[in-house]
Amino acid sequence: MDKIGVGIIGGGAVGYEHIQNYQTSEHANVLAVVTRTEAHAKLAAEKFDIESWYTDYKDLLKRDDINAVSICTPNFLHAKMVIDAARAGKHIICEKPLATTMEEADKMIKVAREANVFLMNPSHQRFVPVLENVKAVLDLLGTITFVRYRFAHEGPYKHWGAISEDKWFFNEEKAGGGVLLDLGPHALDLLDWYFGEVDKVQSALLNTFEKPTKVEDNAILLLKFKSGIIAELDTSWVSHPPFNEFQIYGTKGTIKVDIWERSPIKIMPKKLKRNEKIKELSFKDVLRQISVSKQKMLHYFVDCVRNNKEPEMTGEIGRKILQVILAGYESAKTNSPIIL
Q1: Residues 6 or more apart from 256 whose CB is under 8 A from it?
Q2: Is the same domain home to 193 and 162?
Q3: CA-based angle 315:52:168, to the nearest 5?
């Protein structure tokens, strides 16, 4: 298959990003977009020169010329839309989180497998050049013992205006959670890619500090991996300025990473000779923006569909990430560690 037909379900900012990034691929053709209202659907189609628009995603799924769909909708809609798309024979990329419950995730994966379609639940961080290079040099650290990860920004408030449960992002039932379910999947997917599976979760903090909302705006988890590595994950919607940084500590040295810096990686050996400088790896073309990684992510998905090759970031990976996050919520409620 030289070129695939793509449909976009969801006309918000993330849906627009998907459209723009697909349109940079010579092997993808965005044929249709779905949003809730006719006016918005028409606007999206005109803005991006898309031939068709719908207000009901099931109309899009009926089309034989659409091979794959991007699901860029609120969290509580993911499960039904993924299941319907799979049953319609469409390959699927579903934005994080995969679902809001384990029952939903299990059914989504089962239906996709039965339909013999791909279900990709991605994190664009795997495609950030800096972070790809970190994975390549982890062996320099010897045995890795501890990781500290902070992923934080000022939250969704400036995009959403006044906080209200009428807006799904701040509605606990519809969103499924707050910052942990929003930023956690990005960090946890990266940690899973680097270090494998988590087998124990404990919440050190799960709270709302700054905004009048029922969902948490800060969360800190302590994680134990099957390999024995311990990690601290700190996520926040009330960080001024934002951070996306982590440190990886090993028996032979440490790596410090801040992907929003111009010289984002520092590798520090265990013993420094007198006057020896810390080794820095800078990448001339590293972008502070993350758009390049999202483009690479969608091009990767297109190539997987074209070549009938299952993506690395399967629904099962998304399920693992969701399990850790939900264990974090359960740990906060019970004030006890959760064994996975």
Answers
A1: 245, 246, 247, 265, 266, 268
A2: yes
A3: 50
Look at phi and psi of residue 253 and say left if phi exceeds 0, alpha if psi is from -120 to 50, else beta: left
pLDDT in tens, 313-322: 999 999 999 9
Structure confidence at residue 283 (pLDDT): 46
Mean pLDDT of 272-299: 64
CB 27 within 8 A of CB 303: yes
Distance between CA atoms of residues 224 and 102, nearest Å: 21
Q: Look up residue 169 and give its two tokens.
A: 């992002």
108 lies in the same domain as 200: no
Q: Select from 7, 2, 3 the least CA-distant residue to 52.
A: 7
Same domain assignment for residues 172 and 309: no
pLDDT in tens, 164-222: 556 788 888 999 999 999 999 999 999 999 999 999 999 988 888 877 788 999 999 99
Q: How many domains is the chain partitioned into structurally?
A: 2
Please indicate, yes or no, whether the overall pTM of this predicted structure exceeds 0.85: yes
Q: In this structure, what CATH number is given to the domain that contains residue 280?
A: 3.30.360.10
Q: Which two tokens stand for residue 232?
A: 């601290």
Query: Which residues constitute the domain of residue 237?
Result: 125-288+321-339
Q: Which residues pair with 34 in a beta bridge?
A: 9, 54
Domain with 117 in it: what CATH number? 3.40.50.720
Do 138 and 279 reside in the same domain of the chain?
Answer: yes
172 and 88 within one domain: no
